[in-house]
Amino acid sequence: MSFLALDPKRPYQELDLGDASAELREAAEACFEVARRAGRPRKETFQPVDDSTVEVAILERHLAGNVDVFGLASDAELSNAIGFNSRHVAASIRDGEMRRVRRSFDDVLRREVARAFAPARAPLLFWAADYWYPAGAYMGWHTNNRFPGWRIYVTHASEPGRSFFRYRDPLSGEVRTSLDARWMLRFFLVDPKRPLWHAIYDDAERFSFGYMAHPRALDAAVLPRRPETPPLARDLRRRGAIQLRLHGAPALADGAPETPCPRRPRARLLTRSI
Question: What pTM was computed for the model?
Fold first, then answer.
Protein backbone atom coordinates (compact mmCIF):
# COMPACT_ATOMS: atom_id res chain seq x y z
CA MET A 1 0.00 0.00 0.00
CA SER A 2 1.30 3.48 -0.89
CA PHE A 3 0.97 5.94 1.98
CA LEU A 4 0.91 9.72 1.97
CA ALA A 5 4.02 11.29 3.51
CA LEU A 6 5.44 14.64 4.61
CA ASP A 7 8.08 14.37 1.89
CA PRO A 8 9.28 17.51 0.01
CA LYS A 9 10.29 15.22 -2.87
CA ARG A 10 6.57 14.51 -3.29
CA PRO A 11 5.12 18.04 -3.10
CA TYR A 12 1.72 16.97 -4.46
CA GLN A 13 -0.12 13.78 -3.51
CA GLU A 14 -3.74 12.73 -3.86
CA LEU A 15 -6.00 9.91 -2.79
CA ASP A 16 -9.42 8.84 -4.05
CA LEU A 17 -11.45 8.07 -0.91
CA GLY A 18 -14.06 6.13 -2.86
CA ASP A 19 -17.48 6.43 -1.25
CA ALA A 20 -15.86 7.35 2.12
CA SER A 21 -17.11 5.86 5.36
CA ALA A 22 -20.74 6.14 6.44
CA GLU A 23 -19.58 8.11 9.49
CA LEU A 24 -17.71 10.65 7.35
CA ARG A 25 -20.63 11.00 4.92
CA GLU A 26 -23.06 11.67 7.78
CA ALA A 27 -20.78 14.32 9.35
CA ALA A 28 -20.22 15.92 5.94
CA GLU A 29 -23.93 16.06 5.10
CA ALA A 30 -24.49 18.09 8.28
CA CYS A 31 -21.82 20.55 7.05
CA PHE A 32 -23.38 20.72 3.59
CA GLU A 33 -26.83 21.49 5.02
CA VAL A 34 -25.54 24.28 7.27
CA ALA A 35 -23.36 25.74 4.48
CA ARG A 36 -26.33 25.92 2.11
CA ARG A 37 -28.46 27.61 4.79
CA ALA A 38 -25.81 30.07 5.96
CA GLY A 39 -24.70 30.80 2.38
CA ARG A 40 -28.21 31.22 0.92
CA PRO A 41 -28.12 35.06 0.81
CA ARG A 42 -24.76 34.93 -0.98
CA LYS A 43 -26.03 32.23 -3.34
CA GLU A 44 -28.95 34.45 -4.40
CA THR A 45 -26.51 36.98 -5.87
CA PHE A 46 -24.00 34.40 -7.10
CA GLN A 47 -22.66 34.95 -10.63
CA PRO A 48 -21.45 31.71 -12.31
CA VAL A 49 -18.53 31.78 -14.73
CA ASP A 50 -16.95 29.33 -17.17
CA ASP A 51 -13.59 27.59 -16.83
CA SER A 52 -11.73 30.28 -18.80
CA THR A 53 -11.12 31.85 -15.36
CA VAL A 54 -8.57 29.09 -14.63
CA GLU A 55 -7.03 28.58 -18.08
CA VAL A 56 -3.30 27.95 -18.33
CA ALA A 57 -2.73 31.21 -20.26
CA ILE A 58 -3.51 33.18 -17.07
CA LEU A 59 -0.86 31.24 -15.17
CA GLU A 60 1.65 31.82 -17.97
CA ARG A 61 1.08 35.59 -17.71
CA HIS A 62 1.70 35.46 -13.95
CA LEU A 63 4.92 33.54 -14.47
CA ALA A 64 6.12 35.78 -17.29
CA GLY A 65 5.49 38.88 -15.17
CA ASN A 66 7.08 37.33 -12.08
CA VAL A 67 3.80 37.94 -10.22
CA ASP A 68 2.80 36.04 -7.09
CA VAL A 69 -0.89 35.70 -6.20
CA PHE A 70 -1.01 34.70 -2.54
CA GLY A 71 -4.71 33.88 -2.18
CA LEU A 72 -8.09 35.29 -1.16
CA ALA A 73 -6.66 37.01 1.92
CA SER A 74 -4.89 39.49 -0.36
CA ASP A 75 -7.01 39.28 -3.55
CA ALA A 76 -10.77 39.42 -2.95
CA GLU A 77 -11.51 39.00 -6.68
CA LEU A 78 -9.68 35.67 -6.89
CA SER A 79 -12.82 33.54 -6.38
CA ASN A 80 -16.60 33.55 -6.36
CA ALA A 81 -16.79 30.49 -4.07
CA ILE A 82 -18.64 30.93 -0.77
CA GLY A 83 -16.28 30.66 2.22
CA PHE A 84 -16.92 30.30 5.93
CA ASN A 85 -15.24 31.43 9.16
CA SER A 86 -11.88 32.51 7.76
CA ARG A 87 -10.45 35.40 9.78
CA HIS A 88 -8.06 36.22 6.92
CA VAL A 89 -10.79 36.70 4.28
CA ALA A 90 -13.08 39.70 4.67
CA ALA A 91 -15.94 38.23 2.60
CA SER A 92 -15.99 34.95 4.56
CA ILE A 93 -19.30 34.19 6.27
CA ARG A 94 -19.08 33.95 10.07
CA ASP A 95 -21.44 31.24 11.30
CA GLY A 96 -21.37 29.52 14.71
CA GLU A 97 -23.43 26.53 13.59
CA MET A 98 -20.94 25.89 10.77
CA ARG A 99 -18.13 25.87 13.35
CA ARG A 100 -20.01 23.32 15.47
CA VAL A 101 -20.75 20.83 12.68
CA ARG A 102 -17.26 21.31 11.25
CA ARG A 103 -15.76 20.21 14.58
CA SER A 104 -17.76 16.98 14.40
CA PHE A 105 -16.58 16.44 10.83
CA ASP A 106 -12.97 17.10 11.90
CA ASP A 107 -13.15 14.42 14.60
CA VAL A 108 -14.18 11.82 12.01
CA LEU A 109 -11.77 13.02 9.35
CA ARG A 110 -8.79 12.79 11.71
CA ARG A 111 -9.26 9.01 11.78
CA GLU A 112 -9.69 8.83 7.99
CA VAL A 113 -6.47 10.80 7.45
CA ALA A 114 -4.56 8.63 9.92
CA ARG A 115 -5.31 5.59 7.76
CA ALA A 116 -3.84 7.35 4.69
CA PHE A 117 -0.43 7.70 6.37
CA ALA A 118 2.01 5.07 7.58
CA PRO A 119 1.46 4.04 11.24
CA ALA A 120 2.46 6.81 13.69
CA ARG A 121 3.17 9.16 10.76
CA ALA A 122 -0.17 10.97 10.50
CA PRO A 123 0.29 14.75 10.92
CA LEU A 124 -1.44 17.11 13.32
CA LEU A 125 -4.26 18.95 11.55
CA PHE A 126 -5.28 22.57 12.04
CA TRP A 127 -8.41 24.12 10.54
CA ALA A 128 -7.70 26.29 7.47
CA ALA A 129 -10.77 26.84 5.26
CA ASP A 130 -14.31 25.79 4.27
CA TYR A 131 -15.67 26.50 0.79
CA TRP A 132 -18.94 25.84 -0.99
CA TYR A 133 -18.58 25.86 -4.79
CA PRO A 134 -21.98 26.11 -6.53
CA ALA A 135 -22.06 25.33 -10.25
CA GLY A 136 -19.92 27.91 -12.05
CA ALA A 137 -17.67 28.62 -9.06
CA TYR A 138 -13.91 28.94 -9.32
CA MET A 139 -10.73 29.75 -7.42
CA GLY A 140 -8.17 31.46 -9.64
CA TRP A 141 -4.46 30.72 -9.89
CA HIS A 142 -2.63 31.32 -6.59
CA THR A 143 0.20 29.96 -4.43
CA ASN A 144 -0.74 30.47 -0.72
CA ASN A 145 2.90 31.53 -0.26
CA ARG A 146 2.10 33.80 2.70
CA PHE A 147 1.23 30.70 4.72
CA PRO A 148 3.87 28.07 3.86
CA GLY A 149 3.64 24.46 5.00
CA TRP A 150 1.69 21.31 4.20
CA ARG A 151 -1.99 21.53 3.24
CA ILE A 152 -4.68 18.87 3.19
CA TYR A 153 -7.94 19.43 1.33
CA VAL A 154 -10.79 16.95 1.47
CA THR A 155 -13.41 17.58 -1.21
CA HIS A 156 -16.81 16.24 -2.13
CA ALA A 157 -18.10 16.54 -5.71
CA SER A 158 -21.80 16.06 -6.33
CA GLU A 159 -21.01 14.93 -9.89
CA PRO A 160 -17.54 13.37 -10.24
CA GLY A 161 -15.57 14.58 -13.25
CA ARG A 162 -17.35 17.95 -13.49
CA SER A 163 -14.97 19.78 -11.16
CA PHE A 164 -11.20 19.77 -10.93
CA PHE A 165 -8.02 20.85 -9.19
CA ARG A 166 -5.44 22.21 -11.66
CA TYR A 167 -1.84 22.70 -10.56
CA ARG A 168 1.69 23.32 -11.78
CA ASP A 169 4.15 20.70 -10.57
CA PRO A 170 6.93 22.70 -8.83
CA LEU A 171 9.53 20.06 -9.73
CA SER A 172 8.81 19.54 -13.44
CA GLY A 173 6.90 22.73 -14.30
CA GLU A 174 4.18 20.61 -15.94
CA VAL A 175 0.57 21.80 -15.56
CA ARG A 176 -1.81 18.99 -14.64
CA THR A 177 -5.57 18.79 -14.20
CA SER A 178 -6.87 16.40 -11.53
CA LEU A 179 -10.58 15.65 -11.97
CA ASP A 180 -12.58 15.31 -8.77
CA ALA A 181 -13.83 11.92 -7.68
CA ARG A 182 -16.80 11.79 -5.32
CA TRP A 183 -14.45 12.07 -2.33
CA MET A 184 -10.85 13.22 -2.76
CA LEU A 185 -7.99 13.92 -0.39
CA ARG A 186 -5.26 16.18 -1.76
CA PHE A 187 -2.03 16.81 0.11
CA PHE A 188 0.54 19.37 -1.04
CA LEU A 189 3.43 21.51 0.10
CA VAL A 190 3.31 25.31 0.01
CA ASP A 191 6.93 26.41 -0.39
CA PRO A 192 7.73 29.99 -1.55
CA LYS A 193 11.04 28.74 -2.98
CA ARG A 194 9.18 26.24 -5.19
CA PRO A 195 5.62 27.58 -5.58
CA LEU A 196 2.85 25.10 -6.28
CA TRP A 197 0.47 27.21 -8.35
CA HIS A 198 -3.07 25.85 -8.32
CA ALA A 199 -6.63 26.72 -9.34
CA ILE A 200 -10.09 25.16 -8.99
CA TYR A 201 -13.22 25.03 -11.11
CA ASP A 202 -16.62 23.45 -10.49
CA ASP A 203 -19.48 22.89 -12.92
CA ALA A 204 -21.85 21.08 -10.51
CA GLU A 205 -21.56 21.44 -6.72
CA ARG A 206 -18.39 20.99 -4.67
CA PHE A 207 -17.51 21.30 -0.98
CA SER A 208 -13.96 21.71 0.27
CA PHE A 209 -12.55 21.28 3.80
CA GLY A 210 -9.00 22.57 4.25
CA TYR A 211 -6.33 21.98 6.91
CA MET A 212 -2.77 22.94 7.70
CA ALA A 213 -0.77 19.78 8.46
CA HIS A 214 2.24 19.65 10.82
CA PRO A 215 4.52 16.78 11.88
CA ARG A 216 3.65 15.22 15.24
CA ALA A 217 7.29 15.22 16.38
CA LEU A 218 7.65 18.95 16.96
CA ASP A 219 11.29 19.83 17.62
CA ALA A 220 13.70 22.75 17.29
CA ALA A 221 13.38 22.60 13.52
CA VAL A 222 9.66 23.35 13.81
CA LEU A 223 9.29 25.44 16.96
CA PRO A 224 12.09 27.66 18.34
CA ARG A 225 13.43 26.53 21.68
CA ARG A 226 13.32 28.82 24.69
CA PRO A 227 16.83 30.17 25.48
CA GLU A 228 18.53 28.43 28.40
CA THR A 229 18.76 30.55 31.57
CA PRO A 230 22.38 30.92 32.84
CA PRO A 231 22.96 28.81 36.02
CA LEU A 232 23.79 31.78 38.27
CA ALA A 233 20.76 33.79 37.19
CA ARG A 234 18.57 30.70 37.53
CA ASP A 235 19.83 30.09 41.08
CA LEU A 236 19.34 33.72 42.12
CA ARG A 237 15.86 33.80 40.66
CA ARG A 238 14.97 30.56 42.47
CA ARG A 239 16.25 31.83 45.85
CA GLY A 240 14.54 35.20 45.32
CA ALA A 241 11.26 33.46 44.62
CA ILE A 242 11.59 31.44 47.84
CA GLN A 243 12.26 34.62 49.87
CA LEU A 244 9.25 36.35 48.32
CA ARG A 245 6.97 33.43 49.18
CA LEU A 246 8.19 33.10 52.79
CA HIS A 247 9.05 36.62 53.90
CA GLY A 248 7.67 39.07 51.39
CA ALA A 249 9.80 41.39 49.27
CA PRO A 250 13.19 42.01 50.94
CA ALA A 251 14.23 45.65 51.37
CA LEU A 252 17.19 47.07 49.45
CA ALA A 253 19.85 49.36 51.01
CA ASP A 254 17.87 52.49 50.12
CA GLY A 255 14.65 51.05 51.48
CA ALA A 256 13.05 50.43 48.07
CA PRO A 257 11.34 47.02 47.75
CA GLU A 258 12.86 44.56 45.30
CA THR A 259 10.84 43.99 42.14
CA PRO A 260 10.66 40.28 41.33
CA CYS A 261 11.61 39.28 37.79
CA PRO A 262 8.37 38.48 35.93
CA ARG A 263 8.04 35.00 34.52
CA ARG A 264 8.01 34.61 30.78
CA PRO A 265 4.54 33.39 29.74
CA ARG A 266 4.31 29.95 28.20
CA ALA A 267 3.79 29.86 24.43
CA ARG A 268 0.29 28.80 23.45
CA LEU A 269 -1.06 27.43 20.22
CA LEU A 270 -3.67 29.87 19.01
CA THR A 271 -5.21 27.46 16.51
CA ARG A 272 -7.23 24.50 17.69
CA SER A 273 -5.65 21.18 16.83
CA ILE A 274 -7.89 18.29 15.85
Answer: 0.78
